[in-house]
Amino acid sequence: MNTIKRVVIVGGGTAGWLTAALLQKVIGPSIHIELVESEDIGTVGVGEATIPPIRLVNQVLGINEAEFIKETNATIKLAIRFENWRVNGEDYYHTFGAPGRSMAFCHFHHFWQRAKQECGEKHSLWDYDLNYLCCEAGKFAQINAKDPVLELPHAYHFDASAYARFLRKYAEKLNVVRTEGIVERVIEDPVNGDITGVMLKDGKQVKGDFFIDCSGFRGLLIQRHYNVGYEDWTHWLPCDRAVAMPSERHENTAPYTRAIAHEAGWQWRIPLQHRNGNGLVYSSQFYSQQEAEDLLLANLDTKALGDPLHIQFRTGRRRQQWHKNVVAIGLSSGFLEPLESTSIHLIQSAITRLIHLFPHNGMSEANTAEYNRQSQIEYEQIRDFIILHYYVNERDDSRFWKQMREMSVPESLLHKIKLFRDSGKLFREQNDLFLESSWLQVMLGQGIEPTDYHPIANAMSQAQLLNMMKQLRDIKQEPIAKLPTHDAFLANYTKAV
């Protein structure tokens, strides 16, 4: 019996330190965790936007939200605003909320669709979404409402480097050991092929029973050593470059991320307390590195700070994210562009999956296969959601958008689109990160209009339907006047820490 006692994490950053913190917190004293990283190796550090599940992770770790916001220069994120994605000059929101009120067996949007078709309803679906209304008003506060219709789900924008430092401090308090050094060689058991240790440049050996590869795009253990292969998705998501650049903070801090489509890619704007995060994700088939840099600089809304950071990537996933006694977490496991802010979530979900399937007395083929099966499903579901934004477009201003519209896409996505277009129906796949409300907002925002609605929406008269719609609008609007601005909330919330 080879009981797993020594866990070695290769690589720091958000992936490494979040893995160390969660494993140590949840599994505790039965394992010894050592993290190997080098100050000489930088991290990508542009993933500054998150989605609501990060709040659950912070709660598990026992992190005080106000302290976290202050330490990481964080702001609140209620949504992503997509600009120019369907056509130039048009925008829509993908919020973390849901429109209207939850209904048994029938989503609210079916009632809204009937009101549009039969009663001349002029209000958009987002007029029934509190997250949207707060975004437009630039307001936020934590609402302790008994009625779930007034829930205001949120995530954060933060400085990724500051977040990694915050997690490191937390993990080291839990007795995670940090070792400075660059991995030069991997030591493998000649009998079973498992890794038994890594040799550092200074000659030190770090031995372990189980290894977690958080070495970023390099994939030192999972790819360079084991060569597990890579499933390339650039035929569906051809953007393969990014350029990032910080700029001065905006006068008013928006509680949402902006995703602004250009002729061959898109630009992010992420508001932090001390600066703005900016970047351009693009296809190298259409823009040179210099053209991309110039385009980003020309579209900053505040003065640039520092030099541009250029990043190359290939969208896809490792064919095996757990192989022998190595699990890849973070960029070493695969890459999906940051359009829906899923990078840090994929780290969190990988750690959660690993905790559920953590080996006890050595490796198990069934255990490893289950981890890889769940990882593949998760990556493919997120992939489909990202493809949706590109595939359903009506832009006629560039070859890039025409190609995206005409490409063949996964059958799983085509089925979802056809089902919604024909009937307005949406069903969440098992464990899909994105709820029905997310698919709904992006499909409607990209111009997919259902031709029908669920018959349950006919259960009330037209007068009753219109009265219900007005009541819901009024309920959603009512808190807005009382809420502080986003900036006022941040200043007050972090004042005591």
Overview of the molecule:
The active site is at residue 77. 7-chloro-L-tryptophan binds at residue 77. Helix 1 (13-26) packs parallel to helix 6 (160-173), helix 1 (13-26) packs parallel to helix 9 and helix 4 crosses helix 14. This protein has helices at 13-26, 53-61, 65-71, 108-119, 130-137, 160-173, 220-225, 289-298, 343-356, 365-391, 399-406, 411-423, 436-445, 462-477, 486-493, and strands at residues 6-10, 32-37, 75-77, 79-83, 91-95, 155-157, 177-180, 183-188, 195-200, 205-207, 210-213, 230-232, 241-248, 257-262, 265-271, 275-282, 309-312, 316-318, 322-323, 326-328, 334-335. Helix 1 (13-26) links the parallel strand 1 and strand 2. It has 2 domains: 6-48 and 159-230 and 317-363, FAD/NAD(P)-binding domain (3-Layer(bba) Sandwich); 76-152 and 241-312 and 391-497, FAD/NAD(P)-binding domain (3-Layer(bba) Sandwich). It is built from 15 helices and 21 strands. The strands form 5 sheets. Strands 5-4-14-15-16-13-17 form a 7-stranded mixed sheet. It has a 6-stranded mixed sheet with strand order 7-2-1-11-20-19. A 3-stranded antiparallel sheet has the order 8-9-10. Helix content is 35%, strand content 19%. The protein has 497 residues and is α+β, with helices and mostly antiparallel strands.
